Amino acid sequence: MNVIEYREYESPHAGNFSTEAGLSNKGFEVRVEHAHWSSSGAALIHLTDHCLIRLLLAEAPENAPLSNRGTLSGNRGSCQPLGQTIFIPPGSDFHFKHRACQQKAVICLFDPAAIAPLAAYRWDWEHCITDAMLNLQSNYLQASLRRLGEEVAFPGFASELHIECLMTGIALELRKEFLGKQRDDDEPGKLSRRQLQHLREALDADANDISLRKLADLCALPERKLSVYFKNTTGKTLRQYSAEARVNRAMRLLGDPSLLIKQIAYMTGFQSAAAFSAAFRKAVGWTPEEFRRRRSPGHGEAWSDELDVS
């Protein structure tokens, strides 16, 4: 199964790889692999039509000051430390910076659509590639990968069936983590309902102090695609939605008579009460003081409690 392209581009010495144990079947290949890099360098790893998931079992030297780093974003300068468990979806380019070290790992290559129990599902990884895949924290995935390594190294009764069951569980866990409830009628280039819900909850809670990187990680999307998908889905930019979410939060806070206008301004991310009043009046049609007065008991005028940010 030759589905990995590996190319060093900063060092003339490529990594040396050897397989301790392995098993290949239709749709997947599992192996316990040793890797050795004699010097620091960088490499590009490209997968064609298979996924790769790796669990690091051992590394030497153990107490090295810098860990290996990588990115799926295409920007080599944004490499981050790699976790014990990493996932690389098909069609992606993984830029990998390594130091001189030796590693032992469980490597799994698989095509979910070729594993019989998973063939009916849609596996569209293209729109969810994110560097969060390079540091998976799932205890389930780690335990399953360790069990796979043991089964490959010491095969027993019905090992192939057992391995296929483990691979099925791993693929479904990755689907739950990154594809959510992806349906065949999900529109390409748009956010799913689950992704949109994650964004709305995050922005409504803290619209003024959340980074684009964090929002992208919540949706398991690259930053460069998030803004485009959000606009395609809602008809609004993230900046517009964020501004409206801040005003909506201010409207809720104005219902608390113990809070000063200046306090609410700072709580919703405005630098001054004057800037807050101007933005609020532009969005709502009243100043914060007028809005508070109109919604006081007995005023009797109808209004909408929030702006429409659907």
From TrEMBL:
Keywords for this protein:
DNA-binding, Transcription, Transcription regulation
Region Disordered: start-end pairs = 291-310
Q: PROSITE patterns, per this entry?
A: HTH_ARAC_FAMILY_1, HTH_ARAC_FAMILY_2
Q: Which Gene3D superfamilies match?
A: Homeodomain-like
GO CC, sorted alphabetically, is: cytoplasm
Any GO MF annotation of the entry: DNA-binding transcription factor activity
Protein's cellular compartments: Cytoplasm
Q: Name one Pfam family in it.
A: HTH_18
One BP term from GO: positive regulation of metabolic process
> Residue ranges of the HTH araC/xylS-type domain?
193-294
Q: What does this protein do?
A: Regulatory protein of the TOL plasmid xyl operons. XylS activates the xylXYZLTEGFJQKIH operon required for the degradation of toluene, m-xylene and p-xylene.
Q: What is this protein called?
A: Helix-turn-helix domain-containing protein
Name its species.
Answer: Pseudomonas songnenensis
Taxonomic classification: Bacteria, Pseudomonadati, Pseudomonadota, Gammaproteobacteria, Pseudomonadales
